[in-house]
Hints:
CATH architecture of the largest domain in chain C: 3-Layer(aba) Sandwich
Number of strands of chain A: 0
Largest interface: A-B, 50 and 45 residues
Low-confidence stretches of chain A: 317-340
Bound molecules: adenosine-5'-diphosphate, magnesium ion
Distance between the termini of chain A: 15 Å
CATH topology of the largest domain in chain C: Rossmann fold
CATH class of the largest domain in chain C: Alpha Beta
Structural class of chain A: mainly alpha
Number of domains of chain C: 2
Number of helices of chain C: 12
CATH superfamily of the largest domain in chain A: MetI-like
Oligomer: heterotrimer
Order of helices and strands of chain C: EEEHEEHEHHHHEHEHEEHHHEEH
Largest sheet of chain A: none
Mean pLDDT of chain A: 85
Mean pLDDT of chain C: 88
Strand content of chain A: under 5%
Order of helices and strands of chain A: HHHHHHHHHHHHHHH
Strand content of chain C: 15-25%
Helix content of chain C: 25-40%
Strand order of the largest sheet of chain C: 6-7-8-3-9-10-12-11
Amino acid sequence: xxxxxxxxxxxxxxxxxGVTFIVFSLMYLTPSDPAQxxxxxxxxxxxxxxxxxxxxxxxxxxxxxxxxxxxxxxxEFGYRGLAFGDLGRSYVTNRIVFELIxxxxxxxxxLAIGALALALAVGVPVxxxxxxxxxxxxxxxxxxxxxxxxxxxxxxxxxxxxxFFANRLGMLPAMANPSNALSLALPIVTLxxxxxxxxxxxxxxxxxxxxxxxxxxxxxxxxxxERLVVRKHAxxxxxxxxxxxxxxxxxxxxxxxxxxxxIFSYPGIGSxxxxxxxxxxxPQILGSVCFVAIxxxxxxxxxxxxxxxxxxxxxTAVQSGRKKxxxxxxxxxxxxxxRK
Amino acid sequence: xxxxxxxxxxxxxxxxRAGRNLGQFWRRFSRNKLATASLAVVLVFASVAAxxxxxxxxxxxxxxxxDNAFLKPLESGTVYEGEAELEHRYLLGADNYGRDxxxxxxxxxxxxxxxxxxxxxxALVSGGAxxxxxxxxxxxxxxxxxxxxxxxxxxxxxxxSIAIVAALGxxxxxxxxxxxxxxVPGYIRIVRASIITVKDQEFVEAARCIGASDSRIVFKxxxxxxASPLIVQSTLNVGSSILWASSLxxxxxxxxxxxxEWGNMLSEAREFIQYAPHTLFAPGLAIVVxxxxxxxxxxxxxxxxxxxxxx
Amino acid sequence: MAAILDIRDLVVHYSSDRETVRAVNGLSxxxxxxxxxGLVGETGAGKTTTALSVLDMVQEPxxxxxxxxxxxxxxxxxxxxxxxxxxVRGKEIAMIFQDPMTAxxxxxxxxxxxxxxxxxxxxxxxxxxxxxxxxxxELVGIPASRSRDYPHQFSGGMKQRVVIAIALACNPKLLxxxxxxxxxxxxxxxxxxxMMSELIKKFGTSVVMITHDLGIVAENCDHVxxxxxxxxxxxxxxxQVFGDPRHPYTIGLFGSLPNLDEESDRLTPIPGLMxxxxxxxxxxxxxxxxxxxxxxxxxxxxxxxxxGGHRVKCHLFGGGKxxxx
Lengths: 340, 311, 325
Ligand SMILES: Nc1ncnc2c1ncn2[C@@H]1O[C@H](COP(=O)(O)OP(=O)(O)O)[C@@H](O)[C@H]1O
Ligand SMILES: [Mg+2]
């Protein structure tokens, strides 16, 4: 397992390189011209050419990519590169790119945690209820609701919520702010809708699969009550894939909250990215998209490792006979991971 | 003579078998009432979309009639046609520029259907080809393609789409590329996984033994076996493609007003939620109903195509 | 002597919206206290379904006991309320399934899987139930120290030992053992079987031993029932049935066995296939494969004829007396 984790971490390197390369190439193709943005539209051709040279924009594509990764030396426009967590300053706001990212990211994390918690709190029990009465009216109703949740455009759902809860009832604010807990209600509900639907469906199918297993029959033959069979014998097994999916959802929530954050004018990293794209603020776009992609990849890796720790079948391979508390196990694994 | 007779009856028999299978498939599919109803919805929407021009003049739904701004549903307004002043009733009301919301939804339906089908076709062809290459050739092809897929999948879909439109510029074609790019990794995975499982199965081995060539094996045996997951996935993808298109347009990255598109209609409605909620509900419901219908059809197809499933 | 288990005219169907599988068709059986009954028959004969019926565990919603009575110690199992039935399961009647690889919950330690039965039925506190689990493991030949291990850490034979330990943990009166060794390696089969028979003798458990293996029946059972297409076609003591097999199907089963004492005397196939349980033939279900079938066999279902406890369901036996019934 540790070997596996180590290999996964190593595999991260080419993936991240690829991600940064794709994002960088896309930005390179963008018709926007940073030199023009900095100078404004009425600069002399000579000043413009000088600015392009200063910013390193006259260099070949690959050289620019290497600058982006490992730094670019210039008294005004220099930076240490993505590898060192520095992309200099935004062309538009003149703020340090990663400062803005790091100050907005925790806001996004708050939303994502709230949304995932809500999605699990509703999705898992409803999925279990559906699975214990497959093809009943209740199950059908939940199935349609889940599909409805997955079919609804996030931005529209958000606006409908705003209309009813903010405009009509005046109960909740239409704009969200991390310092006002109440204002987080609507964005969290909005954001969780999709994950809730996915977790519900996943729980249902996983439970149905588990309930067919022989060991469930064994548990019933022991005379255990149906609730104990479901809770102790079925749910644990059924939750393993659900937890994986929830973890992956968390990654999506961190990176995909773009629409929700935009609609509720919430100062998260999604808003930052969209604003940067509108303003053609290349360093800010590059920085935030790469940051999100890295986080996303790390979350996925973490989910994989967790998966191994939850399932004793995989866990044993790590323990190789010795017994340890699962918490210590995780801590050790992480320690070793980060020592590499 | 004999050989021609037998070759003549072979396609006939195959046709009869296909007909039987289709009949059986339809019986299973139609048992699912929701899926059947959804199919009806999609067919109605598609016909209305195809005949959009017959119902609503495109020029009319894209030009401003500021006098009629925010007309409520069924309220009547005035339309100028040359010198004549005509009274006009708007079934779903008018938007902030006084344009007929129903007419814009109908024309928007045409855009959505086109986007849905074209993006899925693009993704299916490119993703399918890459997946087949990875699964069938294996080795270096497999490694490279799957690594690239991993990379694509580690950029959140919406960001990838936004970045592509931002990079390539705001055009209809670029929107198609952005949306289909987000679906390609899914197809690569499905096709590759199916091919790898099918590849080693006995009947393919048998086909190899009797000397069928590589490409024949791929097309005849494997394609038949991976058809169902692809059909299901594609149906679901048409729904998500429509959803994505509206999301990107909502962000101002897809189809821009005055061209009618469900997402940009909602984007315009956003500012007036409080005064004119009717501009918000109808386009949103159009998206929900359409996407839901494709999802339900996809579910129905999955059940009807799964040979193991009895219910 | 009172029978611990008495099944009369049991009929069980599995129905989907397309077809009805007639898995058990008027099966009658009885088992005396402390005895071991061997239930033999081909795959699909309805053996597992019969055992599940005794526990009222035929899989809903498709499976359904259509008619018949099942008396356990004189009590009608089918009349019990669900919570009463749960008291019976695991405590009075236990069952061992065929495949030990899938019968244990992969996420729960084997000790806990034994202990929870004990807690459920004897209300013991956790510590006592865990101690009992350890004792049960020792009984089936596994060190008690392994009770904290997970099923995947055991081999197939060891897993089946754990399954047996679970089944016997509350000292049930009746054990339904559904092909307990079929899934195991041949070398391990004998060990597990021997361990099991010892425990059965020690506890005085009555057993329905479902098996493919006539050798197992000869060595371990008191009575035998041969099952075909959901019916018991022949029933008697091991001596009666092995010494004087009467039903053509039973004879077919023995057909290739020159000597009962010989090892590895497994069932050898009889020409033809079991009838499709969704489309059973008229008359005797065995008639399409029977070398001695007559026109009457194809038209009329035979009824039981008995002689000194040796029961046969065949037109060749009983003659006019049976027809009059
Ligand atoms: N859950 C089920 N659904 C439908 N048919 C079943 C089910 N379980 C068993 N059957 C059918 O019932 C018949 C008897 O099966 P079973 O009792 O398992 O026989 P045996 O244990 O003798 O092999 C078989 O034809 C089998 O296909
Ligand atoms: Mg069986």
